[in-house]
């Protein structure tokens, strides 16, 4: 497959889902992106953040208060529906099955993490193919780099936060080193792209 980098804007006609991964500094980074999105989203947005096992529900509650769109943790076999922002539950891998329903797994950690960004990204790529946007943000491990490369190789689009603007540069730099990025963007650039595609929200 060609490794030519694409300049690309997501639209409801081209994307069915957006998957986002983050670790250290991720809550702050997501605070720049998610509250700016409109209450009525044309896509499902699915997020993995590395959190302690006892943190179940905390991120969904935090961002539900800050976002116009509905924010929740999905249950096993729950459909991934447009219009919602889903956070992976603490202590569980979050996967997408071929019929666009969620699957929760307590399999061994991947890249020392459960939930793992790679697990979500790879399963989402198999499900959505070219109609997927993957976004990898700040983090202190390499989790997500391989999964983002899978998205890109599957015809989807891959954004990486510029390492120099990330609180922890290891994760975005790992993606760049694996040639997993179509575009390397700052958080404000990502936010403006998403607003242009999907509309403006509260922030």
Automatic annotation (TrEMBL):
Q: Does the keyword Hydrolase apply?
A: yes
Read off the PROSITE patterns from this record: CHEB
Pfam family of the protein (one): CheB_methylest
Query: What GO cellular-component annotations does this UniProt entry give?
Result: cytoplasm
State whether keyword Hydrolase applies: yes
EC numbers, comma separated? 3.1.1.61
From which organism does this entry originate?
Chitinasiproducens palmae
Q: Which UniProt keywords apply?
A: Chemotaxis, Hydrolase
Query: What is this protein called in UniProt?
Result: protein-glutamate methylesterase
């Amino acid at each position: 497959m060609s490794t030519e980098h694409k300049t690309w804007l997501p639209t409801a006609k081209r994307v069915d889902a957006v998957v986002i991964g983050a670790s250290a500094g991720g809550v702050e980074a997501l605070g720049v992106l998610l509250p700016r999105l409109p209450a009525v989203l044309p896509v499902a947005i699915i997020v993995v953040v590395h959190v302690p096992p006892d943190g179940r529900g905390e991120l969904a509650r935090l961002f539900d208060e800050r976002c116009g769109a509905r924010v929740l943790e999905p249950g096993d076999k729950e459909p991934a529906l447009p219009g919602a922002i889903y956070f992976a539950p603490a202590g569980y891998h979050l996967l997408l099955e071929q019929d666009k329903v969620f699957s929760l797994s307590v399999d061994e950690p991947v890249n020392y993490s459960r939930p793992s960004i790679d697990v979500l990204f790879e399963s989402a790529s198999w499900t959505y193919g070219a109609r997927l946007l993957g976004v990898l943000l700040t983090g202190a491990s390499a989790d997500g780099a391989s999964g983002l490369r899978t998205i890109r190789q599957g015809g989807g689009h891959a954004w990486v936060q510029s390492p120099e603007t990330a609180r922890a540069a290891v994760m975005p730099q790992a993606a760049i080193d694996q040639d997993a990025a179509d575009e390397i963007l700052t958080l404000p650039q990502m936010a403006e792209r998403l607003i242009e595609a999907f509309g403006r929200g509260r922030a």
